[in-house]
Amino acid sequence: MTSGFDKENFTYDAIKDKYTCPLSYELPFKWKGKQDGKEYKRSTCEAFEICGQKESCTSAKGGRSVTRLSDEEVIEQIAGNTRKQSKIYKQRGHIVEHPFGTIKRHWGYTYFLTRGLASVGTETNLICSPIISRE
Predict the structure, then answer these.
(1) Beta strand pairing call for 65-69 and 38-44
(2) Most buried residue, 31, 46, 64, 95, by most Cβ within 10 Å?
(3) Element containing residue 128 per DSSP (H, E)
(4) Three-class SS of residue 41?
């Protein structure tokens, strides 16, 4: 359930480096941080006491904060491109992924036993490599 005060409803001005809430109040930049190896900036609302929507906006005592990753513009661009190309991605799923599913099912491999790209890649290579018998 969204309240209308979710991050996607806030607008970001890259020139001013500020977010604006749906009620047109600005959230100025407050501080930078780093978590899980990712740098981010946090903007915090200073008008939360006068806007009249604090209860539906946030439960934080210091007002609503919005976090922006340092490379969020790239992430937003990729997400936009993905949405635009969704038809192509669906087509790829029908054309490319079906043969791999058929091969796995034929050989009795219904799911991967490992996680992570490197591990799954290794498991795929083992599944697809020819079996050499020692006779």
Answers:
(1) antiparallel
(2) 64
(3) helix 117-128
(4) strand
Tell me if 54 sits within 8 A of 76, measured CB to CB: no
Instruction: List the one residue out of 73, 66, 74, 77 whose CA is nearest residue 33.
Output: 66
Is residue 64 exposed (0-12), middle (13-18) or buried (19+ Cβ within 10 Å)?
buried
Strand segments, DSSP code E, in the chain are 11-13, 18-20, 26-27, 29-35, 38-44, 65-69
pLDDT of 119 reads: 92
**Percent share of the chain, pLDDT over 90:** 5
Q: Encode pLDDT of 72-81 as tens digits.
A: 889 889 988 8
Radius of gyration of the chain (CA): 24
Largest distance between two CA atoms of the chain: 83
Asked whether 79 and 54 are in contact (CB, 8 A), the reply is: no
Decide if pLDDT at 109 tops 50: yes
